Amino acid sequence: MLEQFEHASILVLGSGTSVGVPMIGCRCKVCLSEDPHDKRLRPSILLRFGKTNILIDTTPDFRYQALRFGIDRIDAILYTHAHADHILGLDDVRPFNFLQRGEIPIFASPETWAAIERTFSYVFDSGPSESSRPRLIPHLFNDKPFPVAGIEIVPIRVSHGKGTVHGFRFGDCAYLTDHSDIPEQSLERLTGLDVLFLDALRHNPHPTHSTVEESLKTVTLLKPRRAYFTHISHDLMHARLEAALPENVHMAYDGLEIPIGHCDRL
Predict the structure, then answer these.
(1) Helix, strand or coil for residue 254?
(2) Residue 97's closest CA among 119, 78, 73, 77?
(3) Domain range summary for the chain, segments of one domain joined by +
């Protein structure tokens, strides 16, 4: 039986690209902007279902994101892929192990898991350690839906240049980041959405990311009720682009919290 959550939301922890905005050493208008919407940490979101918190990606900014937004519990972590801007904050889950007095389940594709295990080999070393390290329970997923903290998660395979990334659908919402193309079979899993997040790096073409114009075409094709663009570079000024977008399409920004209403507990 499915039990619908009374309170559910998506909290944007970071909406920026791999180097963040402002970018180190840059003096462009966006990097010097005083608009807080133009300050973008590395890309991540927190799914809130009642008292359950599911984190998507642990960016290098994760410690600051957790402190900034008052996150005091992580029930599970999903990984889109193993690039540095999506995994390097993994060590900062240790305080959650202390607070929750237990291990935290993490979910990744086999390829992403292999890279995480290699990058953080000390975490998964079975030998004794004099210092603390994250306590994690790894779970591997393929293309089939899987449960996470009582929520059904549908993996969405997308292309990131020559590589593969996974987005995730939960109820009538979906989060895609770091994609240059969405295969036909994945588009079929993205129909009937209330909320859709899409990569929209900049206007100029990029070999591994979607542009604003390409993501607008995806919105037209899939027809979500609300769409949000993320993984935004310093080429895009928030206020200017927000004013030019269709009524149902918005620029995501750090701290944006979106109420969602159609996600059920398994």
Answers:
(1) coil
(2) 73
(3) 7-125+133-257
**Cβ neighbourhood burial of 85 (10 Å; 0-12, 13-18, 19+):** buried
Predicted local distance difference test score (pLDDT) of residue 126: 84
**pLDDT confidence of residue 74:** 98
DSSP classification of residue 23: P
Q: What is the mean pLDDT of residues 216-220?
A: 98
Q: Is 208 exposed, middle or buried (0-12, 13-18, 19+ CB in 10 A)?
A: middle
d(CA 63, CA 2): 34
What confidence category does residue 128 fall into, taking pLDDT thresholds of 50, 70 and 90?
A: confident
What b/e readout covers 244-257, taking b as 16+ CB neighbours within 10 angstroms? ebeeebbbbbbbbe
Plot region of 184 (φ>0 → left; ψ -120 to 50 → alpha; else → beta): alpha
Task: Express each pLDDT in 70-84 by its tens digit.
Answer: 999 999 999 999 999
List the end-to-end C-alpha distance of the chain, in Å, as a whole number: 7
pLDDT above 80 for 262: no
CA 104 – CA 173 distance, rounded (Å): 24
Strands 136-140 and 146-148: unpaired
202-226: average pLDDT? 98
Q: Rounded mean pLDDT of the chain?
A: 95
CA distance 186 to 156: 6
Q: Single out the residue of 172, 199, 87, 173 nearest to residue 134, CA to CA.
A: 87
CATH 3.60.15.10 assigned to domain 7-125+133-257? The reply is: yes
